[in-house]
Amino acid sequence: MKENITIIGAGLVGSLLSIYLSKRGYKVKVYERRGDMRKEKMSAGRSINLALSDRGLLALEKVGLAEEIKKISIPMHGRYIHNLDGSSAFQPYGKEGQYINSVSRGTLNMKLMDLAEEQGVEIYFNEKLSKIDWSNEVIEFESNKNKPLPSFKTDLIFGADGAFSAARLQHQLQHGKFNYSQYYIDCGYKELTIPPTSDGEFAMQVNALHIWPRKDYMLIALPNLDKTFTCTLFFPFEGEASFEKLSTPEAVKSFFERTFPDAVKLMPDYINEFFTNPTSSLVTVKCFPWIRGDKFALIGDAAHAIVPFFGQGMNCGFEDCRVLDELIDKHKQDWGKILKEYQTLRKPDGDAIADLAINNFTEMRDKTADPKFLLQKKIEARLHEKYPDKWIPAYSQVTFSPHIRYSEALKRGQMQEAIMQDVMAMPGIEEKWENVEVEDVILRRLNS
Amino acid sequence: MKENITIIGAGLVGSLLSIYLSKRGYKVKVYERRGDMRKEKMSAGRSINLALSDRGLLALEKVGLAEEIKKISIPMHGRYIHNLDGSSAFQPYGKEGQYINSVSRGTLNMKLMDLAEEQGVEIYFNEKLSKIDWSNEVIEFESNKNKPLPSFKTDLIFGADGAFSAARLQHQLQHGKFNYSQYYIDCGYKELTIPPTSDGEFAMQVNALHIWPRKDYMLIALPNLDKTFTCTLFFPFEGEASFEKLSTPEAVKSFFERTFPDAVKLMPDYINEFFTNPTSSLVTVKCFPWIRGDKFALIGDAAHAIVPFFGQGMNCGFEDCRVLDELIDKHKQDWGKILKEYQTLRKPDGDAIADLAINNFTEMRDKTADPKFLLQKKIEARLHEKYPDKWIPAYSQVTFSPHIRYSEALKRGQMQEAIMQDVMAMPGIEEKWENVEVEDVILRRLNS
Fold first, then answer.
1. Three-state secondary structure along B296-320?
2. Looking at residue B158, what DSSP letter applies?
3. According to DSSP H, which parts of B3-89 are helical?
4. Which of A92, A196, A308, A366 has an alpha carbon 20 to 30 Å from A127's alpha carbon atom?
């Protein structure tokens, strides 16, 4: 019977995990590399807000936080597309009443830490992991380096320390056959701001995720409670239009005015921000195994870092916690069995959402500007209305159907996409898309 | 104009590369982590022999070594299949007169080092790389650690230090967006020996690569000049039949007698060897970029470690050297251009042979025992005889067609395999495979 649990990382997933575990009576200590964000200012320009959707909400519900978090988040009912020619279009994410939530990463994290501490979790800040030695059950932190070794025995360690996890590195270094991949896409990102209007209002439609799709790159914007929007430019590092090329204020100005004319009018400080805010990279990390017997497990980004284009990074990490919690019940606290099944269940789902997230970049930056794609979405939405169980669009499976596994959503999505490819190739589909003929073709293919 | 070149690693690829470069007048220094194998005994039990095929030979030809190496290698004209029921079958690798060559890794490496030194290459042994600092152009080795820093400037560095390349690690650590994957297959390997018969002869047919295909695993054997065969068991680490399970001499004996009854009779010492020789793992490494401007490049396994099932690891590394050498001519020693095109050309080929090698494991361990697969090979061989330019079996493209790129071989092979899948599904194919009807189907598909 285990009593003590150590979590590396007090980010979103580490904090939520600590709540889940302390609720079950474990003594939980969390070690965080950074300072306490509740006392120090967060650095600007790095993924300020996030899209919380049903998987994340379900996991928060179990610890009684969902309603409170919904109160401090902003519903986004669909994509608001800003085309280059000045036209715009709104694409609902799902059915009437379905939406995702723009929420501040900092606020959410601080709330989770508060709740964790209320429940007796001990969080230590400025503690950078330097070593985990499984054979001797010793964890070391940099702060202890020159002191007599204050190492301690622990029953179970979780690595919840993100994409560049120090816990994972220790795991890897003490493993003979560790499968590992890190893949950086060719694009990086930079955050910019749209402030409130002069009369203190949101400068654009608030209940939407705004996208300026420009084929190889895009600008997006999410609303914040303070009536600003945080914009993110996803942009190639190198090439014709790239961060490398935009090296002077003049180049930035000329490019933005040409490419995002309507957005530029709303961003008075974008040129300054462009050179002040960091350019960040986007990595997918896959690895295996995630666990060591009943002693260690990776969770969240540390196990499966993904790119942000499906808005599922946090949601997937929260789901890890929920699934793990259910397995604690199922296996009656037998941690050997719990961790083994956790890994068996979550590894294919982590792989699937990683691939889905990569694919969604193409969809967002390129296809959302394509009328044919919009028609396809309309046909799928109609099918979903009429046959809610038979046809669930891939986006809805991932975002609004927390009981469909990511791996299942990927598979069903690919099957549906193959059908839709054929449907979209039907002559005159633009005119007859609401006809029974089209519907019949789809249903027949579905049942074959 | 560069003058000095440093190569990390004096293995097969590092040594051959040093010959190529010193022939062009560069001052080449090679640093090798291990001792000088010409003076010390190599450790037993780790990939003693290799299959040298046309790509490797072409690269050796250019430095005048092909004929000499062929003299100390043993031709293998095909696969000699040992079935579980005691039956056997011979599958030629290609056309009459086409074969691959069993050659001793040690002998080949020593010959390459001798030739390199004759040409003025300086090889330093027991020099373990500890750091490459590109911004200051400093290389450090562990031997220098406690001495005043004997660092030196160098014009160009090659990392030719294998799958677990220390040079690659330095490259990675000083790179913000390095794509990297290491993937271990579930099987490891162990080497065993078939000694000569009591009258000093080869115990089996000498001019073949012997395979005991057993679905999830296999034993293979390659001939050596001393009339022994080196056997390699490719076997799961865990599971029903696995290294984990064979933990006692009794278990090994019972398993081998049941699974490889004919081989057991030829291996008097296999039980002892099983516990003395190491169990090694098999990794695929892919990474990008391979180069840093005109200062650094990875080559051979350091750039693209692959599993051994296509017998192409060394051949691919040698081909890297040949292609690089041709680019030196093309770009008139402009190393920025040379390295850039080297990477552009070789990265897709390294990826392709990595995937081909993984796929070939299934073919060797499983399909070679399947009569349907043997028939498919016969049909393809017949096509190749009749239409040598139109249809080249995938194995022949990789092994006997050094001017077809690996990436092209992978693509053409997949296309041909799709055709053959349909052909093999034709009713009565077993009887009519030599009919014009079958040929017509294939040719029509090929031309469509």
1. EEECCHHHHCCCHHHCCHHHHHHHH
2. E
3. 12-23, 54-61, 66-71
4. A308
CB nearest A183 (choices: B176, B179, B184)? B179
Of A138 and B23, which is predicted with more confidence?
B23
From the list B180, B237, B281, which residue is nearest A182 (CB)? Answer: B180
Nearest CA distance, A184 vs chain B (angstrom): 6
Interface test with chain B among A175, A181, A244, by most B beta carbons within 10 Å:
A181
In contact, B137 and B153? CB cutoff 8 Å: yes
Residues of A in contact with B236 (CB under 8 A): none
DSSP for A251-318 reads HHHHHHHHH-HHHHTT-TTHHHHHHHSPPEEEEEEEEE--EETTTEEE-THHHH---GGGS-HHHHHH
- Asked if omega into A289 is within 30° of 0 (cis), the reply is yes
At residue A152, the pLDDT reads 61
> Are the C-beta atoms of residues A41 and A73 closer than 8 Å to each other?
no
For residue B98 the two structure tokens come to 């086409």
Q: HSE of B322 in the Cβ direction (CA atoms, 13 Å)? A: 20
CB atoms under 10 Å from CB of B184, counted, come to 19
Of residues A300, A306, A346, the one with CA closest to residue A323: A346
- pTM as predicted: 0.89
Residue of chain A minimizing CA distance to B176: A281
Show the tokens assigned to A360: 């969604």
The three-point CA angle A241-A244-A246 to 5° equals 65
Query: Is the pLDDT confidence value at A29 over 80?
Result: yes
Token pair in block for residue A131: 């070593």
Structural domains in chain B, sorted by start: 4-42+105-181+283-360 (3.50.50.60), 370-447 (no CATH)
Contact A264, A270 (CB under 8 A): yes
Nearest residue, CB atoms, B281 vs list A177, A182, A184: A177
Is the pLDDT score of A147 beyond 60? no
Instruction: Over range A304-318, report the average pLDDT.
Output: 97
User: Distance between CA atoms of B320 and B339, rounded to whole angstroms?
Assistant: 11
| Cβ <8 Å between A179 and B183 | yes
Look up residue B119 and give its two tokens. 């040409």
Note whether A180 contacts B177, CB cutoff 8 Å: no
Alpha helices in B174-269 (DSSP H): 249-259, 261-264
* Number of inter-chain CB pairs under 8 A, A vs B: 30
E strands present in B195-336:
209-213, 218-223, 229-236, 280-288, 291-292, 296-298
Q: CA B10 to CA A446: how far, in whole Å?
A: 59
Q: How far apart are CA A181 and CA A177, in angstroms?
A: 13
pLDDT recorded at residue B145: 55
The predicted structure's pLDDT at residue B188 = 96
pLDDT exceeds cutoff 90 at B142: no
Give the whole-angstrom CA distance, residue B422 versus residue B442. 9
What's the confidence (pLDDT) of residue B193?
96
